[in-house]
Every structure is written in C-alpha cells, then in structure tokens.
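Figure 6 in text form: structure in, sequence out.
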C-alpha cells in the first residue's frame, strides 16, 4: 500500500523439527524500517509477539510510511538481527507513476530443480513480485536425484509447516524475498493437486477430511506468507484482493481453487475431449461472490492497465492441432466455458488495457484473448486483451512437443515455449507493457545463468501482443 508494508519473519532455529526448535512460549520480536541499509534513518519501529499458535511467525503491518519509496527492514530477537530486507511502498492512489516493474513467478517444485531463478530474480530491478501459486508441492519424496521432500505427502498442520520450512530454507528463495515485496496467491499444490472447493484430488478422501486438510494448509500458508490478511480460522478463507499502483496499474489477484465446481467430464487426468458439462452455466472457477467482485472491479476500472493475476490458463486452447476434435485441459478455464466467455467480455468492456497473468502450466505462452462473439479461427478476429503465461521456477513440463505442434494450428497463440523455466519481468509504462521471458540455462544447475528467451509488448489501447 502507499503508506504501509507487511513485513514477515518466523523464529525457527531448527526448521524441520516439529516445533521449529522453539519452546512453546511467546517471544518478543523487535522490528525496524529505515530509509537506509545501515538503519541510521529509522522510519518506523516496534515490537511484536511471536507465539506457538502461529509457529512463531510474525506479520508486521508497518504504517506511516511515504508512498513510492524504497525501505529497508530487519527483525531483532534474543539479541540476534535478521538479514536486512528491502521493500517498497506503492505510489499514492492519486499519483500518476511513469512505470511499474513487476515479475510474475509460480511453481517451484523443490524436487525438480535448484532455485537459481530466484537468485536472478533477486537481482532484477523490480517494484513487486506477483506469485501466482504452487509455492510448495504437497507430495511425498519422488525419485528426483537433485533434492527431495523431507517427508510423505503432507496432510496436517505440522507437516505443512515442515514443508514450508523445507522450501523457505533455500537461500536463493530467501534472497528473492529479501530483495522485493511480494504479492502472493495460491494454486492447488498449496493444499492438494487439482482440488476443487471441497473435493480432493483422490476420491478416497471424504469432503470432511479434505476440508480439515484445507484448513491446515490455509493456516500454514498464512503463517509463511507476507500477507495483510487475518489468520484463517477454518477451511474457508478469502484471499482474493486488489492492489493499486496509482492510476497506472490495478492488479486483481484471484483464487480459482477454493470456490470452483469440480473439473468437468469426470476425466481421469486434466486432459480430455469435449463433454456437455464444459458448457454448463453452473460451472465456475471463481464462485459467485468473487466473480461479482472481479467484474465490478473491471467495470469500474480507471487505471491504464488492469492485470488479472490468477492461476490457470485462460485463453481457449486446444492441446491437439485438429481443431475439429479439440483436446482440452479441463482444469483450466476451458473446462468452465460460460464463465470464461463472461470474463472475456468483461475484459473487453471495462478496462482500458487488460492483461491476464497466469501460472500453473510450467510453460511460457502469449495468447490473444477475443471477446465471446469472435471466432478464434477467423483471420480478422481482433484481440480485446492479452494473456501472459509465465513458466515455472523449476516444475517440469513434459508436453513441449505436443503443445508446440498444437499451437501452430491456433492463430490466437502468439508464443509457446515448453522448454524453459524462470519468470517474466513486466515493464509497465503509460504507453506500453513489455514482457521479458527470463529463462535459466538449466534448472538442475544451482549456478545456472539467466537470459531473455523472448520479449513481447502490448501498446496502450492496441490490444494484442507483438514481438518486441
Ligand atoms: Fe505447478
């Protein structure tokens, strides 16, 4: 926000111990926010209690700061100071900032690679990182030769805390948090692969049991993320929210897991052919309340750019080049086409410039979004918005060949790359939004280098991305 930032830390001397190595007592933690890295000009400070009920995690909402400024912060507990973090306040609501630099990132399966991408993310010149989900993966140890999860599939609060501790112990991930403020949402793996509302991935798990698991997962998520949200007190927890960066950017941050109807067509995997359920008016990814909130926000938009930061691929896409017999990913918006069409029209109607930002699929895409009246195959179809799909930090993508072939038949797909991993840097100015797809040389190499694999730009009031 313009006048405050959320600072996060957790006291955890022994990250993988059940209690993090902490006595079941409360501790006082001091915090400081300063204009300079040496803490000579302190802007705000205070004291906060860390208790066992929240795994000795603390969230400080440091208030009274000035808009659009860089700050440095640290925590002090038991005479020990934390590493120094850098953060930024947002521009004032009435301000007209010239630019915003943001990164989108998602999907950091610990077993699939090292976090060299985070080390490079930390070095980028950014105002904010938008995390689009899959911060942890819930599964037990796999056969990865690189590194492995610390225990079996996580089901309860203690296990979710340990899983976050495994991920957060990574020094490159820590560096990316120390370097930038993050805006965080979740996808499925923060709880359970492909869960939908109260339906678990595995049918064997009863809805009541899944809801208990969801409550544990949501609590551990809150404990480990720098979010300005109250602690959850059960399996229902609103995290969708909106951020404003002056009159330049509004970011609508969605939750497409908690309120969705089940994936259609009773398919055994994400992938399937058409069934009538895809076009059911009851099918929803957003749920009625979030949908109304989002559509109202888009209709009332007065910012130059509206970013819809969410999880699953939005633009209609076939995974087969035979468009007469399309193959859908039913976990994506293609499984929920009535709502997909309504959002396509809302993107066309309200915002001056609408960009959908997507994670989940571990591959990079640039897609034209057409309004619901347009035929995607028509050569004169004009986009109304653009979707930018960031790849994963590490999580693997086994379908590069299939998708690269399918894309050749679909004129709305401007770019697809299933081979690279990393993140996307968005450079948003009043005239254009530029997206740099930043890719690491090898997720299996802790010292991987970074390079720009592709660059696209969308001009103000000219929807549709062009290679730049
Ligand atoms: Fe993922």
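Output sequence:
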């Amino acid at each position: 926000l313009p006048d405050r930032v959320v600072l996060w830390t957790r006291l955890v001397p022994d990250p993988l111990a059940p209690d993090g190595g902490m006595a079941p007592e409360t501790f006082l933690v001091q915090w400081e926010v300063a204009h300079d890295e040496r803490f000579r000009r302190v802007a705000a400070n205070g004291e906060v209690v860390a208790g066992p009920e929240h795994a000795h995690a603390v969230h400080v909402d440091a208030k009274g700061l000035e808009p659009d400024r860089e700050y440095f912060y640290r925590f002090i507990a038991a005479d020990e100071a934390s590493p120094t973090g850098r953060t930024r306040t947002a521009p004032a609501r009435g301000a007209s900032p010239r630019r915003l630099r943001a990164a989108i990132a998602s999907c950091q399966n610990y077993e699939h690679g090292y976090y060299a991408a985070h080390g490079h993310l930390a070095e980028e010149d950014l105002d904010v990182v938008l995390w689009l989900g899959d911060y942890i993966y819930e599964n037990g140890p796999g056969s990865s030769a690189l590194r492995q999860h610390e225990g079996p599939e996580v089901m309860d609060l203690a296990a979710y805390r340990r899983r976050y501790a495994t991920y957060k112990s990574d020094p490159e991930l820590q560096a990316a948090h120390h370097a930038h403020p993050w805006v965080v949402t979740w996808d499925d793996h923060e709880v359970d692969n492909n869960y939908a509302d109260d339906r678990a991935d595995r049918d064997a798990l009863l809805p009541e049991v899944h809801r208990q698991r969801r409550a544990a997962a949501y609590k551990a998520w809150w404990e480990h993320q720098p979010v300005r949200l109250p602690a959850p007190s059960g399996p229902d927890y609103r995290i969708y929210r909106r951020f404003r960066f002056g009159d330049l950017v509004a970011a609508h941050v969605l939750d497409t897991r908690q309120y969705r109807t089940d994936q259609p067509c009773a398919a055994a995997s994400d992938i399937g052919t058409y069934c009538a359920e895809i076009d059911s008016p009851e099918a929803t990814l957003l749920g009625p309340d979030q949908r109304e909130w989002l559509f109202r926000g888009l209709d009332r938009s007065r910012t130059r750019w509206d970013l819809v930061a969410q999880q699953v691929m939005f633009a209609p896409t076939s995974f087969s080049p035979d468009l007469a017999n399309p193959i859908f990913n039913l976990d994506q918006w293609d499984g929920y086409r009535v709502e997909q069409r309504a959002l396509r029209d809302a993107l066309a109607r309200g915002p001056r410039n609408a960009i959908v930002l997507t994670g989940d699929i571990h591959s990079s895409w640039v897609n034209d979004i057409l309004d619901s009246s347009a035929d995607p195959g028509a050569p004169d179809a004009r986009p109304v918005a653009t979707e930018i799909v960031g790849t994963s930090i590490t999580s693997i993508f086994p379908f590069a060949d299939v998708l690269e072939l399918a894309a050749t038949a679909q004129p709305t797909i401007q770019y697809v790359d299933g081979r690279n991993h990393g993140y996307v840097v968005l450079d948003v100015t009043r005239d254009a939004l530029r997206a740099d797809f930043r890719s690491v040389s090898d997720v299996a190499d802790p010292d991987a280098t970074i390079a720009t694999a592709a660059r696209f730009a969308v001009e103000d009031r000219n929807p549709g991305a062009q290679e730049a």
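Caption detail: Residues 441 and 448 are 5 Å apart (CA to CA).
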